[in-house]
Amino acid sequence: MQSEATTASYDAEVIVVGAGPVGLTTGCALRHHGVDCLILEERTEVRAYSRANNLWARPQELLASVGLRDAIAERAYPVRLVNFFMNGTPTTPIRIDDVTSPHPQVLYSGQDVIETTLIEIYEGRGGRMQRGGKVVSVAQDGDGVTVTVRRSDDGPEERLRCRYLVAADGAKSTVRPLLDLDFEPERFEGRMNRQVDAKLSWRRSLEPDQLWFFYYERGFCGVMPVWGGYHRLFFLADDAGVPDRDPTLDEIQAVAREVTGDETLTLSDPQWLTHSRFQYGVSPGYARGRVFLAGDAGHLSLPIGGQGMNAGLHDAVEIAWRLAAVLRGQAASVVLESYDAERGGEHARLSAQQAKGFRRTVYRGPITDMALGLAAKVVPGIGALLQGTDDLQQLSVSYPKSPLNEDHLSGVTHLLQRGPGAGERAPEAEVTVDGRTTSLFPFIYNPDSVTTGWTLLCFDGRSTEAGASLRAAVEAVAPWGWVRPRLVLAGPVSEAGGVPVLSDLDGKAHGAYGLEGQSALVLVRPDGHIAYRGAADRPERLTAYCRRTFMT
After folding, report:
1. Which of 79, 27, 20, 88 is closest to 55 using CA atoms?
2. What is the largest CA-CA distance in the chain?
3. Which parts of the sequence belong to the FAD-binding domain (predicted)?
4. Which pTM value belongs to this model?
């Protein structure tokens, strides 16, 4: 991908600031796409303890698309069930693995373990990293970005040059204020979190396949596995009478026994005892010119539903494929510009959702507690309600206002069979290929080893007359070699010059996309989100979309 001019003029095509999970995932994804990448990290070593530690289904799908998910899963516990208690009363447990995804079980590991795994992959892919330097200035011009790094407070400065810069340097980002993208966090007063990672003994199961959450008077407690046989216990509660310092193990154990109702609960061998208070906010933008924010560099997240790191992993995969497509000369400017609109908007939505869930969780009074205690006995899934979302797995993340969207199947005539529209995640569905049961995902994500490949799903709608239209659609995208057609046929077999045929006689894929009885075209982006939907007999609309989205 690099020319001699590029090598001479730039220290890297993309520089990533920050070697936490989000920065490392960005680097790994860029290397997956063949992009020359340099990661800058102020820390000299990986943190010896864990902060974020869970991976939901949708981020796992995205990690799988860039070859990262399985290595992380090898050092993680798959969790299937979440147990909720309201003032000692159990509510309906939530089966979090009951979702249509190749990776339905949430993975619990540790941030330190995840970082170590990603570093091994990044270096194995030829990625470069420099530790021990702090970014002190960023200057942009029409051709690239100049980054100034200082090795110590009064140490020497080094200037590095790149085409694009991704800031993934966390909530205390040094890059964000340099871009005039800083924000004033909102604070939750009167509440504190106390937390420990330790060995746990209690009367409940120690198998690391489920979580426990306890709502108690003016507080909220979680018990979850951490890699290596440890458990994390946290307590978000009223801070009245609580010392403003890290707790002792005995203090945490006493609270844990009371909250969980288990007088035998014992904690030992603590790895990490900490306390914190809560604030949240979102940057007014996720991009400035050639510089992009990712993860907590642009969003100060709340610990509700374990969404923060997972949202950052979305950012990492999303910016990587866009930068790769631009650097390859495949993508028009709208593709890179859409990152800010999509991810900035999603972080704003998530922040509001988290704040709502946080207030429900830790600002409950006695009247609310009484009502919830009664509701817990009759309302299934009340725990998810209190958490602020019924989609902990992030499968409903969508971009309804993305500039990449174009949808010709969203009118009144399509209300009765509404499938996922432009901006939504393309759903998984069972299909058959050469008599073998498989699914759509292997044909959607990076098809035919084209890492920035887009997939055109051509649905025949069970029509005997759709063949000619589908062939015309395949010809319409021929000028753009990274757009890979697939025929999804519920009706007669139709040939289209070697295009893969996915048999759907049982209509499972057509049903998942709301296209039973409709011959239609669905263009799916490299991240698995739908970009375009249209009738199969109007291929000129698809051609117009490709002309405005891709370079020719």
Report:
1. 79
2. 75
3. 12-343
4. 0.94
Distances from the Cα of 51 to the Cα of 47, 227, 414, 533, angstroms: 9, 12, 45, 41
Structure tokens at 18: 């920050």
Q: Do 254 and 287 fall within a single domain?
A: no
The amino acid at 407:
D
Do 499 and 535 lie in one domain? The reply is yes
Is residue 490 within 8 A of residue 505, CB to CB? The reply is yes
Among the listed residues 349, 332, 475, the one whose alpha carbon sits nearest the alpha carbon of residue 404: 332
| Segment 336-388, tens digit of pLDDT | 999 999 999 999 999 998 888 788 777 766 656 666 655 555 555 545 555 54
Question: Among candidates 176, 165, 118, 130, which has minimal Cα distance to 297?
Answer: 176
- CB burial of 452-461 (b: ≥16 within 10 Å; e: otherwise) equals bbbbbbbbbb
Q: What does the pLDDT look like over 172-214, one tens digit per residue?
A: 999 999 999 999 999 988 899 999 999 999 999 999 999 999 9
* 380, 92 Cβ separation under 8 angstroms: yes
- Report the CATH number that the domain containing residue 459 is assigned in CATH: 3.40.30.120
Per-residue DSSP letters for 312-347?
HHHHHHHHHHHHHHHHTT-B-HHHHHHHIIIIIHHH
Host domain of residue 273: 186-279
Total domains present in the chain: 3
488 neighbors 431 (Cβ within 8 angstroms): yes
Joined tokens for residue 197:
């990672």
